[in-house]
Write a structure and sequence with these properties.
- The complex is a heterodimer.
- Chain A has a two-stranded antiparallel ribbon.
- Chain A is mostly helical.
- In chain A, helix 3 crosses helix 18.
- In chain A, 73% of the residues lie in helices and 1% in strands.
- The relative contact order of chain A is 0.18.
- In chain B, helix 4 runs antiparallel to helix 5 and helix 5 runs antiparallel to helix 6.
- Chain B contains 6 helices and 4 strands; from the N terminus they run E-E-E-E-H-H-H-H-H-H.
- Helices cover 53% and strands 15% of the residues of chain B.
- Chain B is an alpha+beta fold.
- Chain B starts with a strand and ends in a 6-residue tail after the last helix.
- Classes of the chains: A mainly alpha, B alpha+beta.
Chain lengths: 510, 227
């Protein structure tokens, strides 16, 4: 109880710290920008956060992170507008929103659908925020026990699970993307003996590929290329009915909201598995539990609520591992992690020791972003829809100009622009062949962690690999990893199912 | 059963659906699949692996791409393996042999090699090795409007970022890029001259505004020396 009160006190003082004209001003413009970025098809949350990172170099660290979190939350919410009105998810996170949002709009209930999306997003954020505030300190303290062995498995676990969940039809593609990411992190000077790997004498490659240019490429240029390749989207129609959320929708579906919030948070915590998966899993769970299952896909308020609660709950969830393990829970969170490093904040297991207040500041940032989307969702929805009328032939060149200058501005090297172009083309080709991008990015981040900790662990044990398998946390991590791989191989899956059925006999439905 | 032939093969695999071993080999122009090991002995000079049940059936659309990606992955991982092998072992520093720089890249390369082999095997099973590259097919692909827009976008973006920026003043490169991009995609053949000039004016205004805003923000506010 004391701990809770102490947490609450820290949270309140963090909130108090941001109630200042300058902070409120930054909050206002960045959330609005986030919503616009999210609403425009072809501008994703990841790309938005990556591009805005370059605009926040000169801000003090807490304001910079505040701006980025507001953009992040705003973009995930803003994507629902496009999903509902024109059946195109504004960001990948809103793909599940189209299933019921668009049918509602066709029935003339676009305003109500947007109200449901607003309330779902706000409540999802709040549930996720609650767990961010309570779980992050716990996990932070727990992570202090992690040694090289655990970090090695955490890297492998992250890649395998993220690869599996982001490419459910064909997990091997997710894993390939993840391992390609890990491999590209091998370029540059390694951290133990300072040997230059794969640099071939170029000084630019000694530091490896910088994360922000790589991400701006993989999510910016790659997106520009696919938007221009795909057929033009239809124009938006304005909603006629009221966009103010109804209390009745919330009270009626509170179970769905809580369930989706929990699912979203958990999906967020899993490394590299982001908002899109959070929304899909919440949607599927809501459909399975629903009493009005037949309405799903034809304009179910419950389905829409589940999808929008699920994706916004991922945001705070994804920040939990960023803060406590320095491992991103989603692709935009990866940029957030990079931005924290740029601003001299060192997230990781030591954060609860070195800067516990920062954790609560982040919670407060999510809180303000949530308030802001609620206000914009009620007051500004109709004028905001005007941005949807911007043709892509005018938007995309401007976006690409920002991609170029954003990659360049961090270190003022032309080389970073080429890294951006390289990862953009490479990322586009992979994406066209249905390889997910999130494991690739996760791999770039986790490569160094894997490299150092595998070698360090092996040296510590003098080549003995048993601690990698017998330490309790390691045991859990590698078991989940291996089961996840085995489940994709048909004979092994059947064998495993037989084992599980022997242990837990299946109950016959009702 | 009499043995009919002894054949060299790149890969030999156990096909769980068909419950038999198969082998295959690709030479310069032809791809040969050796279906029955009971009547043919295949001599593997590359690898053996296992194709799980059901794999290679649900991926028909991507089979050609998967085949090529698989081959590329195999080449990449062999290259990384060789490079890792050639990295110094730092014996003179008496470092622990398991902490040498090449060990993790080699590990990753082995994993990617396995993935590459699986991709190749299952795409071959689905018939993806028959690439069917003819002049007509290639022409057909490149005449799709989506692919044409993609080519134009790629040329414009890569030309701007890779060639123009850094050689000519930044503001000039950026303004030209935006102006040309809009004209290329918005001008249609048979458009009246009035409409064309209207688009030209819009493009020019947008180019000037964006260039000024970006240059000013980064150069004056963020103190970045522009390329």
């Amino acid at each position: 109880m004391d701990v809770l009160l102490e947490n609450l006190k820290l949270f309140l003082s963090a909130i108090g710290g941001f109630i200042a004209p300058l902070a409120l001003f930054h909050m206002a413009w960045s959330t609005l920008l986030g919503i616009v970025i999210g609403a425009l098809p072809g501008l994703t949350a990841t790309m938005g956060v990556a591009l805005i990172t370059t605009l926040t170099y000169k801000l003090p660290p807490d304001l910079a992170i505040l701006v980025l979190i507001c953009v992040y939350v705003g973009a995930i919410y803003g994507g629902s507008r496009t999903a509902i009105l024109i059946n195109i998810p504004g960001t990948p996170a809103n793909a599940a929103t189209t299933l019921d949002g668009f049918p509602l709009a066709k029935q003339g209930l676009a305003g109500r659908a947007m109200g449901v999306a607003t309330s779902g997003s706000v409540l999802g954020s709040i549930i996720g925020m609650f767990f961010l505030a309570t779980l992050a300190p716990l996990l932070g303290n727990y992570a202090l026990k992690f040694q090289s062995y655990e970090f090695f498995w955490l890297a492998i676990f992250g890649i395998v699970i993220s690869g599996h969940l982001t490419a459910l039809d064909d997990p091997i593609k997710g894993w390939i993307a993840g391992f390609l990411g890990l491999l590209s992190a091998m370029v540059g000077q390694e951290g133990i003996h300072a040997y230059d790997r794969f640099t071939y004498g170029t000084t630019e490659l000694m530091g490896g590929f910088a994360l922000i240019p790589a991400m701006v490429g993989a999510f910016g240029l790659a997106e520009v290329l696919s938007v221009m390749k795909n057929p033009q989207a239809e124009m938006a129609k304005n909603p006629q009915d009221s966009v103010i959320p109804k209390l009745e929708d919330i009270t009626k579906y509170w179970r769905t909201i809580v369930r989706s919030g929990l699912i979203g948070t958990v999906i967020g915590i899993i490394p590299g598995v982001g908002e899109d998966i959070g929304a899909w899993v919440s949607y599927a769970a809501a459909r399975r539990k629903s009493k009005e299952r037949e309405k799903f896909g034809k304009g179910s308020v419950e389905g829409l609520m589940a999808a929008e609660t699920g994706n916004n709950a991922v945001v705070p969830g994804a920040i939990i591992p960023v803060l406590t393990l320095a491992i991103p829970g989603s692709a935009p969170a990866a940029v957030l992690l990079a931005a924290m490093f740029i601003h001299g904040i060192r997230p990781g297991p030591m954060i609860m020791v070195e800067a516990p207040f920062f954790v609560y500041q982040v919670v407060a940032m999510v809180f303000f972003a949530t308030i802001a989307i609620l206000i914009y969702g009620i007051a500004l929805t109709k004028p905001l829809l005007k941005v949807l009328a911007i043709p892509r032939t005018r938007l995309m060149p401007v976006v690409f100009v920002l991609c170029v200058i954003g990659s360049y501005a961090i270190t003022s090297r032309l080389f970073d622009i080429w890294v951006m172009v390289g990862f953009g083309v490479f990322g586009f080709i992979l994406r066209e062949m249905k390889y997910p991008m999130a494991p690739l990015v996760l791999g770039i981040i986790l490569g160094d962690l894997l490299d150092k900790n595998l070698r360090r662990g092996l040296v510590l044990t003098d080549g003995d690999i048993t601690p990698f398998f017998t330490r309790p946390i390691c045991l859990v991590l590698w078991l989940i990893t291996f089961i996840s791989i085995l489940m994709t191989i048909e004979p092994a899956r059947r064998g495993l199912q037989r084992v599980f059925r022997a242990v837990w006999p299946e109950r016959k439905p009702g | 059963m009499a043995i009919k032939a002894v054949r060299p093969s790149f890969f030999i695999y156990w096909d769980a659906d068909e419950r038999r071993f198969s082998g295959f080999n690709q030479t310069k122009n032809a791809f040969r699949l050796y279906p029955r090991l009971s009547t043919q002995i295949c001599v593997p000079f590359f690898c053996f692996f296992y194709v799980p049940r059901g794999v290679g059936t649900g991926f028909m659309g991507m089979k050609k791409a998967d085949y090529l990606t698989g081959l590329a992955l195999i080449l990449l991982s062999i290259y990384v393996l060789v490079e890792s092998w050639r990295m110094p072992r730092l014996e003179h520093l008496q470092v622990h042999p398991l902490s040498i720089p090449g060990i993790v890249p080699a590990f990753l390369a082995v994993v990617l090699l396995i993935f590459g082999l699986i991709l190749v095997a299952r795409s071959v099973k689905a018939g993806g090795h028959r690439l069917g590259w003819t002049r007509e097919n290639t022409k057909k692909i490149f005449s799709e409007p989506g692919i044409q827009r993609l080519q134009l976008t790629a040329v414009l973006t890569i030309g701007y970022a890779g060639i123009l920026v850094g050689r000519i003043p930044y503001w000039l490169a950026t303004a030209v890029f935006i102006f040309v991009f809009i004209l290329v995609f918005e001008w249609r053949s048979g458009m009246p001259a009035k409409e064309r000039s209207r688009i030209g004016v819009v493009a020019a205004i947008l180019a000037v505004i964006v260039t000024t805003a970006v240059s000013y923000t980064f150069e004056r506010l963020f103190l970045v020396t522009l390329p």
